[in-house]
Each structure stands twice: as structure tokens, then as C-alpha cells.
Amino acid sequence: MHNPADIRRRDLHLGDTVTVYKAGDIIPRVQAAVVRLRPAGAVEVPLPDACPRCGGEINKAQERWRCAKGTSCALPALIEYAAGREMLDIDGLGRTYVASLIESGAVTDVADLFTLTVDQLTAASGSAKRGAKLAEQIETARSRPLSRVFCALGVLGTGRSMSRRIARHFGTMDAIRQADAAAMQDVEGIGPEKAPVVVEQVAALAPVIEKLIAAGVNMTEPEEPTASVHGEGPGPLAGKVVVVTGKMAGPLDGLGRSEMNALIEKAGGRAGSSVNSKTSILVAAPSASGKPSSKAVRAAELGVEVLTPEAFADLVADHLT
Ligand SMILES: [Zn+2]
């Protein structure tokens, strides 16, 4: 539903009931509207005539429309994301200071953060003390592992755990940049649809990556001292692929997917996204309805061990902080 030509081709109206099919056996795709179920007076899906984020022009050159400003439309959100705790972790670089740095022209991309002067940071934050503190934090951020630096680039479709997988798989930014779509598909969780999109975005980010390198930002993923080449270390989950589904409870209450993935990796295992023949353990919270999830059904079919969040917490107790 992000492709206007497709929406028109399928003659979709607001309130339509649609048929959905599994494209490539995985991705649900809208096939067609069930016209006889269309509400009376339903109107065609309205298409925007301005960028919903900045109100500027839309570039309609390709089927998937984009803001004519490109990435700079999303710049404030991207910089805030990049400075986040699980990315560059520049604590204190909040929305107001980011806006001020962008407005002054000091920051036009993520890489510019690393060449800011204390004076610029003082001007943006309105205090010499805060400016100095921010400069110190940016200095520390220069040596973050590649997984966090890569994540900070904001490549679509690569969040925290995917960035971690990409960084661990390739080891260096150089190797990531040299990867073609086929090589990118070797990363667990990247399929034939996503691989070329990631490769294309990494290529488009070349100027930003060059600036980061020039600014002395770390471009390698440190090897875990005890980890094997596959990123699997010793621990209760050594050599195991663990898939998580549902809302965590007990000692794991409140842990999101990326935190669960980090926990799995800390305990020596690998996080998987779907249940298949390689899956060792499925951590499944019982659903409110009592009906097993599709992942749980699949696990049962394959004879995959299923653990409750509580039982899994016991298993990795030494790695819970
Ligand atoms: Zn825009």
C-alpha cells in the first residue's frame, strides 16, 4: 500500500474489503477489492499531493513516490535516531538541539555530528557547559562498534538487530559496501526482496560514509573475544537458533525484540526471525486467547522445543542483568 500506481491499478477505495495472498510464500499482498462488499459512497484511496512530513513536493519519477527533498526531509528524525541510546548514544542531543544544529546549517547529515566544534555545540545548546559535555560524548561515539554506526545511517529495513547481524556478518564497513545483493542475502533475515534495497541504499550513502571515515569514526565490528566466526559464543544457547514470539513476561517482562535478540546473543545463541528447520528453541508467550500462535504451531510440526518466557529466563539466568 505504498505504491500509488498499484493502489489505482487495483481500484482500491476507502473501506474496501480486500483479498490477500502470500507473495513468495511469505509477504501478504493485497490482491483485489471485493467490490460487492464496498460500502455505499466509498471514495477512491486519496493520494497525497504534498510530502506528508514536510509539505514539500513529491518526486513521482518512480512507482514508489518519495519526497523531492530526499533524505533531508527526514533529517531531523534521522539525526535524533542516530543519536539514540542504542545507536551512537549521544545522550543529551535531543530534539531542540538537533533542530538548531540543522537550522544553522552545521548538520546536513549524520557525519556532520563528528566535525561539530564546541562553539557550534555551545550555540545550539545555549550553554558552554552543555556544549563541552556534548563534544565529549560525540568523541566517545566515534569509537562505537560498526553495528551501531551502521544502524545510525538509518538504512530502511535495517533496525538494531538487523544492523548487528549485518555488521557481524561482514565485519567491516568496506566489506558491507562491497557486498552485492547475492552476498547481502547471506545475512540471516535478508531475503531476495530486501537485499537489493539494502545494497542500493548503502551505495547511495557513499558520501556520508566517506565523511564518517574521514572523521575517524570506527568502521569495524569488534570480535567478541570468545565468539566463533559465526558470532556464537559459549553459553547456554551455544550453537542454538532462538525465535521469540508474543509479549514477554516474568523476569523478561518489558523486553522488546531487540533486547531479546541481544540477550540471546549474549547467551551464545543466534536470534532467528521465523520458525524453520534450523530453529532450536521457540520462546512463546501464551496468547491471551489461549490459541497457539502460527509460530507455535509451526514449532510443534517441526518438533522444535517451545519454552515459556519464564522457562527461557531460567535458562539464560546468568546473562540477565
Ligand atoms: Zn518531505
Describe this structure in words.
- The protein is 37% helix and 10% strand.
- It has a four-stranded parallel β-sheet, with helices on both faces. Strands 1-2 form a two-stranded antiparallel ribbon.
- By secondary structure, the protein is of the alpha/beta class.
- Helix 3 (95-103) crosses helix 4 (118-125), helix 4 (118-125) packs across helix 5 and helix 6 (146-152) crosses helix 7 (160-170).
- The protein contains 14 helices and eight strands.
- It has helices at residues 4-9, 75-82, 95-103, 118-125, 128-141, 146-152, 160-170, 173-178, 181-184, 194-204, 206-214, 257-266, 294-302, 309-315; strands at 18-23, 27-33, 58-59, 66-67, 241-245, 270-272, 281-284, 305-307.
- The protein has four domains: 4-37, no CATH class; 72-141, Orthogonal Bundle (DNA polymerase, domain 1), CATH 1.10.150; 146-214, 5' to 3' exonuclease, C-terminal subdomain (DNA polymerase, domain 1, Orthogonal Bundle), CATH 1.10.150; 241-319, BRCT domain (Rossmann fold, 3-Layer(aba) Sandwich), CATH 3.40.50.
- Zinc ion binds next to loops.
- Zinc ion is lined by residues 51, 53-54, 56, 67, 69, 73.
Write the SSE topology.
Blueprint: H1 4-9, E1 18-23, E2 27-33, E3 58-59, E4 66-67, H2 75-82, H3 95-103, H4 118-125, H5 128-141, H6 146-152, H7 160-170, H8 173-178, H9 181-184, H10 194-204, H11 206-214, E5 241-245, H12 257-266, E6 270-272, E7 281-284, H13 294-302, E8 305-307, H14 309-315
Parallel strand pairs: 5-6, 5-7, 7-8
Antiparallel strand pairs: 1-2, 3-4
Helix pairs in contact: 2-3, 3-4, 4-5, 6-7
Bound molecules: zinc ion.
